[in-house]
Amino acid sequence: MPIAEHDGAALAYREVGRGAPGAPVLLAHCSLAHSGLWKPILEALAPERHAIAPDMPAHGGTPAPAPGASLQMLALGQCIALAEGMGAPVHLVGLSLGGAVLGRLALARPDLVRSVTLIEPIWFHLLRMDGRLEAAAEEAAAASAVEAAARAGDARGAVEAFMDRWGVPGGFARLAPEAQAAMAAIYPELARDFEWVSGTPPGQVTPAIIAGMVPPAMLMHGANTQGPAIEVLDVIAAALPGARRRVIAGAGHLSPVSHWEDVLNELRGFWAQVEAAG
Q1: How far apart are the first and last CA of the chain?
Q2: How far, rounded to the nearest angstrom, does the alpha carbon of residue 222 sit from its chain's CA centroid?
């Protein structure tokens, strides 16, 4: 995998299709994964578009942020640097953690963005802002159960609880021991950034800020995902009434993995519409 440098820190990424005719694409993965999550979609896009998928900080081959730094904010800077280097406005596709990062990119640098697709971004703080207290409480309770395991010193238990909710139930137990250990090592970095997932630190995204988003947007979720993830998209959709909504039948939170062909078909249709509009 290529390694770039951003502000003195290494950044690992996958790249396909350099020189391909279509507008470029930047894809960002979810927590506890790496850029290989996008491999089938990258391989399908290679003849059509230049596409890059970075490893988020603390994931894959990209080191963790320095102590006290935000994982999401470091990832934002890295993704801006990648987009700047792609030579043309890019189509953004972000899943979960990646959706939160690329949503911020679309807001911060619309000049770099052709379109943005948000697949269940982890902007759970929007639930309370919009008065969706039941969904906020559900997500807070689930997060508290994960955190309780972590506080008890059981990082693997915390990751297993997280994956049972947002990945494939029982999937963690089926992983090789080295993969379990790698995920357990990532979790503390995610926990340190939790304020950007559910809190309101200075600079947090709000519905009013989202309403100012310039690039065309598509909002996507799996039909079988968790309710709070869908309600986050409902809040975003209310702020962006022109956004395209798509539901991937039969999929859970990880629709780009389990139903990647359906997700890619939706992306291609959306991009064609955006590009036809000029």
Answers
A1: 34
A2: 14
pLDDT of 9 > 80? The answer is no
Whether 4 has a pLDDT exceeding 80, the answer reads no
For domain 3-129+199-276, say whether CATH 3.40.50.1820 is its number: yes
Distances (CA, A) of 210 to 90, 141, 275: 19, 26, 22
CA distance 43 to 51: 10
Q: How many CB atoms lie within 10 A of CB 247?
A: 17
Phi then psi dihedrals of residue 10, to 5 deg: -70, 150
The DSSP secondary-structure symbol of 223 reads T
Per DSSP, what are the bridge partners of residue 14? 53
* Helix or strand holding residue 244 (H, E): strand 244-248
The alpha carbon of residue 162 and the mean position of all alpha carbons in its chain are separated, in whole angstroms, by 16
pTM: 0.96
Question: What are the residue ranges spanned by the domains of the chain?
Answer: 3-129+199-276, 133-195
